[in-house]
Design goal:
110 residues, mainly alpha, 4 helices, flat
Length: 110
């Protein structure tokens, strides 16, 4: 799988997970409709399915995915929560993405 496709798939996966967790948050903390649990469950199901599309060991995918999740969560903080990320948020995201790249794209022998 190409690097661009891998990162794109991770970005979609992170978005599905965050939406799947954010909707119950709205229900529980902001007294929104419990019907939000229906799209939340669908989104979390999509998240789990997307993780299966990577052609490598599950543990490696989960470890690397975490780096992309951190990055997307910081984007969510800015775009949805309306909170501007600090320079530390951005540095932390860069470190997480670097870790993802090392895990996913390092040469494999044997």
């Amino acid at each position: 799988m190409s690097e661009v496709k891998t990162v794109g798939l991770f970005l979609l996966t992170a978005l599905a997970e965050i939406v799947g967790c954010y909707l119950p948050y709205l229900w529980l903390n902001q007294n929104r409709s419990p019907w939000l649990l229906v799209p939340a469950a669908l989104s979390l199901s999509l998240f789990a399915w997307l993780l299966t599309l990577h052609p490598t060991a599950a543990g490696r995918v989960y470890a690397a995915y975490g780096g992309v999740y951190v990055f997307v969560a910081i984007l969510w903080l800015w775009a949805v929560d309306g909170v501007q990320p600090t320079s530390w948020d951005l540095v932390g995201s860069a470190v997480a993405l670097t870790g993802m790249a090392i895990i996913m794209f390092a040469p494999r022998y044997g």
